[in-house]
Write the structure tokens for this entry.
Amino acid sequence: MTDDPRPGEVTTGDVPDALPALPHFWRELFDRAPAAISVVSPEGRQVAGNAAYAALFGYTQAEVEQLHVSQLTRPEDQRWTEGYLRRLRDGEIDGYQTEKVYVRSDGSTFRAALDVRAVRRDGRLRALIGVIVPIHRREPLGGGRLRKLVEHIHDTITLLDADGTLIETTGRYTPILGYPAEFWERRTAFDVIVDEDVPRLLELRAQILDKPGEVVHATMRVRDSDNAVQLLDAHAVNLLDDPEVGGIVVTTRNVTTEHQLLQQLRDSRDEAVAEAELRSRMIATVSHELRNPLHAVQGISELLNAGPLTEE
């Protein structure tokens, strides 16, 4: 007589035989679960996915079992996904939680929360169980205290994906550039940039993607809700490979007023310098024009002082 495996356990033997060996009751629970659940081998090959999982990605359950997790992952996320698999295989961790952008069968993407747990037997990693919950709209950041800080922060903090699509921004909690919070849903950095600055933004994006972890500074022109041009001072760092972040962090500050004040100071300085130069030229000209007559007067005075003058 053999013991039936408990829920979430796998049987001995190869991982691909794990779910088929489950009793019918547990298999039916797995298939009917409303959450998207999958079983993955230690190497990242899909062993099984329930109906919700298959529907989420646009595959049949049979097709799911032919996939590798890399086929559901964006190219820019491959490195940290494989990093998690390696740490699970090496026994460094027994699970993790993160957010991730997934790729459906039709090539479209969606963001979801991922919770992964390791199934081990006799110290050996036998399988990984993952639960995926799509994120349709992100919740406010971390509670009342943090939200109050966000609402009163002077700078703007934004998280972008590799394509420049907005993942998160403090603009969803306090108005930025005059736009309401709902404006930022499904936006990209290109939606507000001045048209003439788009080529430069593309160059900066390439630079940011080529230098993960390095801060890149730039000043960009954007249009506010009144279509007026505003100047933003921006610092960006590529943290796409960081599983806790998974994006490009951009910190911006509106420096339009400061720039205008600096320009006014430059204009005032230039005017003062021009006025001083004009005054110097005028003094030099007057001095030159007066010098010859004064010399003549001085010469005649010296002759008069020398003694009586002849008729000549």
About this structure: The first helix runs from residue 24 to 32. The radius of gyration is 36 Å.
